[in-house]
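WARN retry 2 of 3 for item q-0093 after timeout on previous attempt; input resubmitted unchanged.
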Amino acid sequence: MTRPIATSCAWLAAMAALLLLGGCLQLDLHVLLEPGGGATVTERLQFSRRLLDLGGSAGGDLQLAPLLEKAAILDRMKQMGRGVTLVSHEVRDAEKGARESAAVFHVDDLNELRYVSPFLAFADYAKNNVVRFQMVPLLKSRNYVGTAGEMAVSLKLLKPPQNQPQRDENNPATPGPTPRQLQIYRELQPVFKDMMQGFSLKLTFESYAPLTGTGFGLRDHRAGTHVVDLIDVSDQDLDALGSSVLDNEEVMLDLLQGDYGSQDIVKTVGGFQDNKTVPLLLTWGSPYCPWHPGDEIVFAPSRQLFDRYFAGKKLDYSRWAPNPPDKHVEAKFEKIGWDPDRNRKKDPDKDKPAPSGDSAKAPNGTAAP
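OK item q-0093 returned
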């Protein structure tokens, strides 16, 4: 029995597959963690005119326009976890005949939130593609990233994922496409490139407090960013050599074959922390994925989270073997907590409005750009 896309937990995977047939989509999900432990979730979903026309001509479960309507949003919301409510929703026209929905949800407890997995390289992604957000207090320091007294957020698949097999002399890589198949892929590549125009896929987590680190890499770490992306890919990305990723034959052939953990893709996304021009794709599950010290996003607890998780507890700051109890330290909010008022005192100019008019002068006395 065919399941309608609108009610399937794998609705994103189904729509992403439509890229191979024609048209493009944009999906931008932003999860903003609040000091109380709840979250505001903003979702923007856009279908191009080509993709809408394709779905309309196909009929049945492939009709995409209804997925933008409120009834489908409410239906999908039921898959997003307990306590998720719809705050607002609108459907609007976009450029070049595209249509998009903008929905804002709220969840009282981030631990209840479910969404489609951004970890495309696992071998069982087709059947295991839903993650839950998990927030835990660190009462003991992690080995590498995460210090006792911090909060940690991670995205966990509902079932343990299946890695792609490691490759060595005892387990060689499966044979690649035949010369004939490669020729077909190469002939399709210009068509696929055209279909990818305007494509973007992004999942962002934002904390109320600056992030102190992640186990997988963080752009703008030194700037005290509150934001980390779990996936950020688009048709505007470049490859490791500075050319359009859509012109990279090896990467495009891998995408056409659905191999999101290939050696060429892993090389292309490598170093994304320091290079914002390349795609951000976490290739966990790939045999070529480099080692990373964890999957958690860490930051200081708010007063509410401190009272819930740390009050009256002891902290173990040892990175490796646990310290004996007599060396544990009492958790104190003044030492480990995030206090917005205290942070503002450290940076009194942070909330001042930007200068304008004659007062907007650069250090050399010229008008600021």
